[in-house]
Design brief:
mainly alpha, two-stranded antiparallel ribbon, about 5% strand, globular
């Protein structure tokens, strides 16, 4: 459990204090598979829904639109904007265009994932960007964005 200190305990009135600080380790896969899906999020899609959406929207009459999303994302990140907070707008826009038959959803998701994973692995270029992350941590972050 992670409690943000110092915070007040609702029932006891006492204060939470940090006993230990440091990076939170990645949850081992064998533990993650035994847990229910994280928070109930009204806007998040299940893995099955994501797979179905990507499979259903496989035509793309205007593939060049993807380049606009990729370039805008890269420009904002290079200017120091948050990599995580910048991606959802471009990802949602690309998926709306896929639903309209303008982009191939799988191609768009793959290209945006590649761009996201590449940028989050780099050192931050501004105070809005967190520490670099890669591997399972970055991929899990991407999967949350895609959902």
């Amino acid at each position: 459990m992670i409690i943000v200190a110092p915070s007040v305990h609702e029932e006891q009135g006492g204060r939470y204090e940090w006993q230990q600080t440091g990076p939170v380790p990645v949850l081992p896969g064998y533990v993650a598979t035994r847990l229910p899906d994280a928070l109930e999020a009204a806007d998040a899609a299940t893995d099955a829904q994501v797979i179905a959406f990507l499979a259903e929207h496989c035509t793309g009459q205007r593939p060049e639109l993807l380049d606009i999303h990729l370039a805008a994302y890269a420009r904002k990140v290079a200017a120091g904007e948050s990599r995580h907070q910048t991606m959802p707008g471009h990802l949602a826009g690309a998926m709306k265009e896929a639903a309209a038959g303008l982009l191939n959803a799988t191609d768009a998701a793959t290209a945006l994932e590649t761009a996201f994973l590449a940028t989050v692995a780099q050192p931050p270029v501004g105070p809005k960007q967190g520490k670099p992350r890669s591997g399972a941590v970055a991929r899990n972050e991407w999967r949350g964005l895609l959902a």
